[in-house]
Amino acid sequence: MAATIEEEVQRAAIAVIQPTTDPATRRHASKFLEEFTRKTESLDVYVQWLTSFRQQEQSILSGATVNIHEYRIPMQMLCLTMLQSKLRQVLLQRSDGHTANPNLRGIAAIRTELWEYLRQQPSLDRTLVGPCCICNAIVIVRSEGALAEFIANASQNLLGLPQETVLRIMSCLPAEMEARQDLTASQVREGLQIHIEAALDMIRKSLITNENRPSVVMAAYQALQIWIEISHASLTQINTPTYGGPHAILPAVIQLLSSSSNSGNDEYNELTLQSAARALMAAIMVVSDSGTTTRQSAAAQIWQAIPQGFIVQPLQIATMNEWHDATHALSSLLSTFVVEHIDDIVKNPAGMGLQVLLEIQLHPSTSVALIPLECWLTIQEIPTGERHEHWKQPLYKNLVEILLRRLAYPPQFTSWENESEIVEQSDFLEFRRMATDVLVSCYFLLRYEMVQILTQHVRAATDWRASEAALFVLAQISKDVCARCRSHAADGTLIARDRHATQQELLQLLEQLITVDSCVTNAQHKYLLGSVLGFCGNYSPAWTVCPPQAILQLLVYLQSAFGKMPVESGKATRAIYVSCLAKNMPNLEDDYSSRREGENSVLPMILKSVRTSMEAVLLTSDEEAMTTVAEGATRVVTKLVNPEVARQAMTTDLIQPVLNHIYAVLKALPESNNAAEWMSPTVQSAIESLSRLLSVIRIISRFCDAPHIPAMGEWLLHQIDPCLQLVQQRTASTLAQSFILPKWISIHQQILRSTLPQQGTMITIFTNTIPLIVQALEQTNDPCTLKYISTAVETFGGQTMEMDNSFTDLLAHVTVEVTSKGDLSEAMEFLQAYFECLQRYILYCPRALCCNPQLLSSILKIAVESISVIEAKESTRAALIFLSQLLGWKSLRLSPQSSQILAEAWNSSILKEMIMMYGPTITQSCITGLTGGPQMLMAAYSDTLFSLCQSIAMNEKEELGTPANPANNISSQLNENLIRNWLFSSMVNTNVTNNIDTDISNQIIVILLALARDDFRSRPKAKSKMLLADYAKIKSGEITSLISYQLP
């Protein structure tokens, strides 16, 4: 006999809930139940299902044990959960009128059965009450007049349900109203506001009944929270007596949140406090009654209740019991109240409320301590003249002291790797990050007083944690403090006095810090030494008033710390070089020149210090520290006015220490190409060291540019070229090449950028270098080789016909190397660098690109193949940009020479032939990419397609000149009919899945070509991007028609 639908549903439900069901069967059963629920007849089955459950529960009460299913509770839970979806579906359809013959009988039956199901309490399992309340709420909010009827009956206790259950249904009603898809957010609020007075009255009555169980009180506050949050009930509304009576609900909330009782179930206490606090906070955040006397009256009740224990008592209980959510809710309540009523609060004495805020600020929980930070910033937005004295400097002095304690590392802290640490590193660092704005705000109010507080904390601290915290705060405000130190205010003014006092305070602290050996400071904790080094560097603008000897003493201290904290020492050293020495070097040089022989001068001591710092940092293995110090030292040396002195210093004090280390490392490399020798730990360490040293050379070459010293880059390359040649010889065709080659090339590339192309030495060295680059390209296919060629093209391109011819040969060789790869998708980074190099050819050396049509055709073939590989995003984008620039060269900002060369290539039909040859494929690839490619390539596809259309449209208008050979008919073939056919064919190509009809395709083509004919003053390219973006959206189904486009 065939199974009935009820039996099939029951079997499927059992399969879903049984723990022994295999995954495939469970998925099949779940899918069956979902499909069944969408059917019209499922409502009748749910009625039968609920009835059978209720009858089963009654049998259990009467003592029956036969036919009791072991999964009866999970079965009922599953039934009620699926029923929620069914009710939302059916009742939404009824309210929208989408169903012609709704099952009114089934809906009425399910409403009755749901109500009877709830009335089984107290025998009904508590886990089933919540899902059943949701089902009833779904029916109530989607049935006309049912919401008002329910609240009225609930207020008079006529529902026949336990009070806790009634309140739980009340909690579900606003959420279900919000879930109605036929209502807007404002309609939901308006619908709930109609019933807000009745709802508040009903909830208030539940709260004031003395015999109510804790669970009832908790349910009442949960209902209050959700009603206020979704209906946007204001502070005025919850402080207004309901139905003309003498009582409002706000006093009841204040009373609960002032209670010191800690009796009852812990879970009840936490959840109740949490709900009550969030309910009141939600009302405070509603601003519809702002400025009214009724709101001010309610706010006064709240603020004046704090001395009587409001928030204070429950916050102590929550903290003691580690109720984190309740603590967070209570703290947020007070903070939100202060922020929303700040204008009125700060006009009066602070009282207990401020004290509680400061205690919250010191709370050990990071999430709680973060809450009051907004309050301090908000207070600072109020002019001090409008604040009571309690809310001015005294408050922020106290706040600085509290934040210092809160920002300190935990007691007995050793390291974050220590699992016994009670504070999470992420929490600690987050608080430090979030507190920065408040610290800066404190400084703007306190100025010198804050600096004095912090320096005294450092001096008086007996624990490294306290010193480190004060130094951390000094670091956060250093930018603004240094701005004050750089102030040019006239002596005798308030600002000048503050500036002088601040500088003296900082200098005294600096002197105290650097007199302590860095080893001693590091022994206390490395974080303390890091903060000391940070202080030395962050406040370097304040040390400009120090004599050079004091700066040298400070540099000696930093040099002693390189071995312990190289990065921090390096950053501080660089800062002092840039802020204190670089600006004074010309003066020191003058002083050195004017002294008679035998007299002491500071300049040699400074240059010696530079060399000492370089030698100290080169002994570390930290590349960041090495390059940082090298940058600062280069900036100092290049400020020397005398070219000879500058070059001598650059050689002796800066370059030579690095070269000495490079030569020493090269001696450690094997003489043979034996792989085993190159893989030894010693050699690998030497290779890594060589790589770091080359990075230092690159930084020096980057910052060695000095306008007053001619040919500085050329001179530098002359100094380092022998060493670089040796490096290349020792590492070529070895396992070290892949590590060293990019650094070696980047040095040459950097020097090319900083030199003039006419400098003879540079041309000679470039001529000697380029064969090595080509050899490396052939051996490694490293993208850095092509980046060097790009820089060379940018530097020397277009200088002479001979140079351009050499770049043509070079490009041909590179192109052969690219095409020899076969599968281009395996070398995407190399391909990306290739197309970026071609972009430089268009801009700086177009003759090398266009003088050989066969080479240009090979290049375009590679580009066309690449733009169809949409997975390789970066290389595809580079190819598209190249094509866009080549096709749309008329819109580029080119030199007159480059423009003339490209115009000649166009007029001689070289570029036109390329368009005729590759135009259809480019069009198809762009259309395909627009409709199915990644979002990051959309702009590039649009630009390329528009450039193609524009070049053809301009040709027809004879914008680009007449062909040199009148017999050539390519110009006449390049017309709008041609590009129109290419576009239409690509859009309707069967390989491109699309739902766009012919009319829309034609409409897009017409607008696109109209934009292509437009001049460059009306931004046609930007408009074409929007048009093609709409095309892609129509293709994807996001929109169904074009927006209005105004044709040019």
TrEMBL record:
<comment type="similarity">
    <text>Belongs to the importin beta family.</text>
</comment>
<keyword id="KW-0813">Transport</keyword>
<dbReference type="InterPro" id="IPR011989">
    <property type="entry name" value="ARM-like"/>
</dbReference>
<dbReference type="GO" id="GO:0005737">
    <property type="term" value="C:cytoplasm"/>
</dbReference>
<dbReference type="InterPro" id="IPR051345">
    <property type="entry name" value="Importin_beta-like_NTR"/>
</dbReference>
<protein>
    <recommendedName>
        <fullName>Exportin-1/Importin-beta-like domain-containing protein</fullName>
    </recommendedName>
</protein>
<keyword id="KW-0539">Nucleus</keyword>
<dbReference type="GO" id="GO:0005634">
    <property type="term" value="C:nucleus"/>
</dbReference>
<dbReference type="GO" id="GO:0006606">
    <property type="term" value="P:protein import into nucleus"/>
</dbReference>
<dbReference type="InterPro" id="IPR016024">
    <property type="entry name" value="ARM-type_fold"/>
</dbReference>
